[in-house]
Amino acid sequence: MWKSSLVAALALATLLVPTEGRACATCACGDPTLTSMGTEQPFAGRLRFATQMRAWGMTTGQQAVDAVSLRELRMDLSVAYAPLSWLFLSATLPLQTRAVRDVSLARETAWGVGDMEISAKAFVFRDREFSPDHLFGVLVGARLPTSTTVRDANGRQLSLDAQLGTGSLDPLLGLSYSTFRADWSFFASATGYLPTRGREGFRAGPSLRTTLAAQYQPDPRWALHLALDGLLDGASDTHGVRDPVGSGVIAYLSPDVLFSPATDVVMSLGVRVPVLNFLHGNVRQLPILQAAVAYDL
């Protein structure tokens, strides 16, 4: 009898030993809003992986005179980790294939690793710890010169347009705000880049990227997202010689559909359509097609 009682006591003690709790990302942050990479709510220990595919292109100059066209297919591999409930650390590594063709039909192609971007996002204000309605964050980071100089089969260096990165160290600083209202959520951000001098003495101009977005989510499995993305680029220079081509302002209307086929998986499909173009140098930007998958581990 005493042996049976001892076994029962040991079994009960085992059940009372605390173990690590695990929950889905929605449960842990207290909000069911589907989010793309970079707009998620934080909680300590959150680990998120994502991949995003983008196809885009642009043409500069006058047709049959000095036109240069660029086409690129890019895949961004991203990881984000929150060591604390108010801090997100993230890194994004782009894999790119790029083709450049000028009016003479000369063609350059390149593929490989682009310039990695690392950042830390600190949430400096939240109206409550669990399931906040308002989040305000500060972003700091840098774009790193991880791309290598691409050369052709004869060892000649490709043009700057065909390179997969500038080869410069570019600090960045940004602000973001999110608010959540039942089926609706809203997001605003502004991020500035201050490039340094890189490959062949080239220095890209300072730039500011902005986003204003609204999302409607009538169901836990899907949502409609609409954003207005803006880009303000300063003039670049090479060895101090100023080049205004490509500088100016451009804005995109960006509709997306988000879908969650399984717990902790978010897929998105969308397009960025240029609706305002005040870029110097007769720059014609094509719509940008994009698809992404994010997974919380």
TrEMBL record:
Signal peptide segment: 1-23
Record keywords: Signal
Descriptive protein name: Transporter
The organism of origin for this protein: Archangium minus
